[in-house]
Design a protein that fits this description.
The complex is a heterodimer of chains A (115) and B (118). By secondary structure, chain A is an all-beta fold. Chain A is 0% helix and 51% strand. With 118 residues, chain B is mainly beta. Classes of the chains: A mainly beta (115), B mainly beta (118).
């Protein structure tokens, strides 16, 4: 019930193209969905996050789309740049104190943007 | 945004020795910190949740006596890998939750520590 499934595992996109990463979850108690970007040898960095009371959130070239009924959310990277080449993780958590706000991570997507 | 640091960034040790990794929240007070382990090309695996002033909560399958966690202050948590063996070689990452931030559930990650046990 805690699993978050992420797809695809890897993605190659041309510079200027759109990268789309999808995640699906089972636990309807999840109420916070962040995306993290990780470069090799570095820790994950928070990219953008959303709560289920909105269907879309945009920050610069990054957009989260959220479908509560389908229990799915996705990350769109518009005008992809070579510097966006990294591994992206979706995650989910909920506020119940007993759970300690633990993040449940997807498996990750390695994105390569070709110049 | 909130900044979390880790020290050291990499460490090489001999089998059987202990290694301590520090995690600090630099510009906020973190009542809760988390320790993760990450193998190459894999996702992050939560090892334990560290609460200031209390014992850490370990995930199933994580040896408490091997991975000692201390959260002595609101800005510092330490992970000590005791009697390290080559199979403990991994990338260890901490995160901290900023309870005063716009998203109180947000975890901010440190840069990670690469541990290699010879």
């Amino acid at each position: 019930q805690q699993q978050v499934k992420q797809s695809p595992q890897s993605l190659i996109v041309q510079k200027g193209g759109i990268s789309i990463i999808n995640c699906a979850y089972e636990n309807t108690a999840f109420d916070y969905f962040p995306w993290y970007q990780q470069f090799p040898g570095k820790g994950p960095a928070l990219l953008i996050a959303i709560r289920p009371d909105v269907s879309e959130k945009k920050e610069g070239r990054f957009t989260i789309s959220f479908n509560k009924s389908a229990k799915q959310f996705s990350l769109h990277i518009m005008d992809s740049q070579p510097g966006d080449s990294a591994t992206y993780f979706c995650a989910a958590t909920y506020r119940i104190k007993a759970a300690g706000n633990k993040l449940t991570f997807g498996g990750g997507t390695r994105v390569l943007v070709k110049p | 945004g909130a900044v979390v640091s880790q020290h050291p960034s990499w460490v090489i040790c001999k089998s059987g020795t202990s290694v301590k990794i520090e995690c600090r929240s630099l510009d906020f007070q973190a009542t809760t910190m988390f320790w993760y382990r990450q193998f190459p090309k894999q996702s992050l695996m939560l090892m334990a949740t560290s609460n200031e002033g209390s014992k850490a909560t370990y995930e199933q399958g994580v040896e408490k006596d091997k991975f000692l966690i201390n959260h002595a202050s609101l800005t510092l948590s330490t992970l000590t890998v005791t009697s390290a063996h080559p199979e403990d070689s991994s990338f260890y990452i901490c995160s901290a939750r900023d309870p005063s931030g716009p998203f109180t559930d947000t975890q901010y990650f440190g840069p990670g520590t690469r541990l290699t046990v010879l």
